[in-house]
């Protein structure tokens, strides 16, 4: 049985359009892991966190907890056949909460390895669908840093089957927002 890993990163909770789109798409899915990165925040990448995820030597109690959390996140990702990621655009980038998740997963020898040809991802054969919501219209423009960032990071882990579902113009009037959300719902249903 395939497993779906859902990552929610919107700070808007039940008012979040990305969360609403995701919730509607997963109602009939049985084998699912849902991680809301805002209700269970992850530690930011700092010196202590970096040591915790890259070393086993002389770790403090806090660092051991961070390492165990990182191990759990890696195992969730390894178990999943498909990832459904909610990635609203905040100030032209993904939410800090989502970046924190990636930072805890970027571990040499665990999710990628260094080779003579450069880094090689170790988490292949996964499908990813990313729901990205935006107040303005940014797709394919110079201000769309979300798409490139997520594509690059997932590829770094070896994940190259990545599809985006866009809901844009959500702050540009009710009619445009409604049309954009309906199109996103339809696309998300087709991709799941």
What's the short version?
The chain is built from 6 helices and 7 strands, in the order βαβααβαβββαβα.
Highlighted features:
6 helices, 192 residues, 19% strand, alpha/beta, two-stranded antiparallel sheet, globular, five-stranded parallel beta sheet
Radius of gyration: 17 Å
Overall pLDDT score:
95
Terminal-residue CA separation:
15 Å
Q: How many separate helices? A: 6
Describe this structure in words.
The chain has helices spanning 17-25, 47-54, 61-79, 96-105, 145-156, 174-191, and strands at residues 4-8, 32-36, 82-86, 112-115, 118-121, 127-133, 161-167. The chain has 192 residues and is α/β, with parallel strands linked by helices. Strands 2-1-3-6-7 form a 5-stranded parallel β-sheet, sandwiched between helices. Strand 4 and strand 5 form a beta hairpin.
Task: Give the helix/strand layout.
Elements: E1 4-8, H1 17-25, E2 32-36, H2 47-54, H3 61-79, E3 82-86, H4 96-105, E4 112-115, E5 118-121, E6 127-133, H5 145-156, E7 161-167, H6 174-191
Parallel strand pairs: 1-2, 1-3, 3-6, 6-7
Antiparallel strand pairs: 4-5
Helix pairs in contact: 1-6, 2-3
